[in-house]
Amino acid sequence: MIDACSQESRPLLSIDDALGRIKTAVNPVNGTEKAALKNALGRVLAESVYSPINIPHDRNAAMDGYAFASRDRADGQAFTLALAGTSWAGRPFQGQLQPGQCIRIFTGAVVPEQADSVIMQEQVQAQGQTIHFPADTRVRQNIRQIGEDVKQGACLIAEPKKLTAVDLGLLASAGIGEVTVKRRLKIAYFSTGDELTPLGLPLEPGKIYDSNRAMLGGLLSDPSYSVADLGVTPDNKQLLEDSFIKASKNYDAVITTGGASVGEADYVKEILQNSGEVNFWKLAIKPGKPLAFGKIGQCYFFGLPGNPVAVVVTFQQIVAPALRQLSGARFVKPLRFAATCTSALKKAPGRQEFQRGILSQDECGEFFVASAGQQGSNILSSTSQSGCYIVLPEECKGVQAGERVTVEPFSLFI
User: In this prediction, what percent of the chain has a pLDDT beyond 70?
Assistant: First the structure.
């Protein structure tokens, strides 16, 4: 696709093509380690886990009520049974359930072998040791069977899943306290540019504060990553090259911001070509056209643009999937769905755009999205106020209010 606003002589690379090249180029890291369950959240499972027990381990009640045998039910008639005892969660009924008897039972408590039904406590009337059952009592209900959730020997969780809180609960329910996970991915990041001023110092003319490293630190917050902030490197070719080569020997991936454009002081591409390899360079996306992906030795390199919104977009759309693959986790697609756009949106054909939007949902469940404001690649305020991307395809020439668009939410909450 040719960008109508670009002076590039060659077609730009689409996101899909870029991700395809990444999928081909990136190999997951080797190495595993043991992790206690309490430390396993967000880690990438390296070995599938099989259940050593049935879940549930015993037949148990699905609710508080009374357990009885269906043979004691009188067809179509109310009936009474004698209360023989109680089965508590963790303290099963110890006797034998005889014909004409029932027991009081609580949720999760073991159901006696002789019983095959549990009735909700609100549906019966208790008079001392006599329990009155209604005529419409249903049988063979409200009992969780042995292995109903997971059979002994069945796969609990298959590698290489990134473990969630629910996964930890499932593993704990099988008595598993330790799992084998992929080793943490070692990632370093730093900014480049003479214009960057550290936080806490006054700004001099022409200088700006380094917002990109603060954002990258947050974007890289992941239990499966071990992350190092290497600070700021000036626009000096030799210093940049030395920084790249040193980092490449100690990390699995290095991410930089700035120096990925075409100015005289932008050395990233040249350094990569001299020290390693470049896989792609100009993307058909906005914001974020200049992006470098390459490799120095065994270390993968991502050179992001300098503008902060472009950093966020290129990280989320390109770098995050690459790091996920490098960590050994499964590839996942971002959640996208249609919404009615309530704002008119400007766009020139040629690049896929990620405009920032404010997403809402009405009482009928319909989704609506409005522009979050100015869309420049330096405008962080609109990104902070937004809750989604409005994803506009390359060929789009703008959007009128009332048209349907594709949105990509930043989280599950609006």
Answer: 95
b vs e for 288-321, b when ≥16 Cβ sit within 10 Å of the residue's Cβ? bbbbbbbbbeebbbbbbbbbbbbbbbbbbbbbbb
Q: How far apart are CA 357 and CA 382, in angstroms?
A: 8
| Structure tokens that stand for 323 in this block | 């790091």
User: Which uninterrupted H or E stretch holds 25?
Assistant: helix 15-25
The pTM (predicted TM-score) of the whole model is: 0.87
φ/ψ of residue 207, rounded to 5: -100, 160
3-state SS, residue 412: coil
Cα 47 to Cα 39, 50, 328, 330: the distances in Å are: 16, 10, 12, 14
> Which percentage of the chain shows pLDDT scores above 90?
75
Residue 170's alpha-carbon distances to 139, 165, 233, 285, 329, in angstroms, are 30, 9, 46, 41, 19
Residues in contact with 196: Cβ distance below 8 Å, sequence separation at least 6, in sequence order: 207, 208, 209, 210, 232, 258
Q: For residues 289 and 306, give the distance between their C-alpha atoms in angstroms, rounded to a whole number.
A: 11
Host H or E run for residue 222? none
Is 373 in contact with 346 (CB distance < 8 Å)?
no
Burial of residue 251 (CB within 10 Å: 0-12, 13-18, 19+) is buried
Comparing C-alpha atoms, which of 309, 314, 368, 316 is closest to residue 337?
368
Q: In the prediction, which pLDDT does 199 show? A: 86
State the CB neighbour count (10 A cutoff) for residue 254. Answer: 25
Show contacts of 286-291: CB within 8 Å, 24+ apart. 286/351, 286/352, 286/353, 286/354, 286/377, 287/313, 287/354, 287/376, 287/377, 288/313, 288/314, 288/317, 288/354, 288/377, 289/3, 289/6, 289/12, 289/351, 290/260, 290/261, 290/262, 291/18, 291/260, 291/318
Cα–Cα distance measured from residue 15 to residue 86, given in angstroms and rounded to the nearest whole number: 63
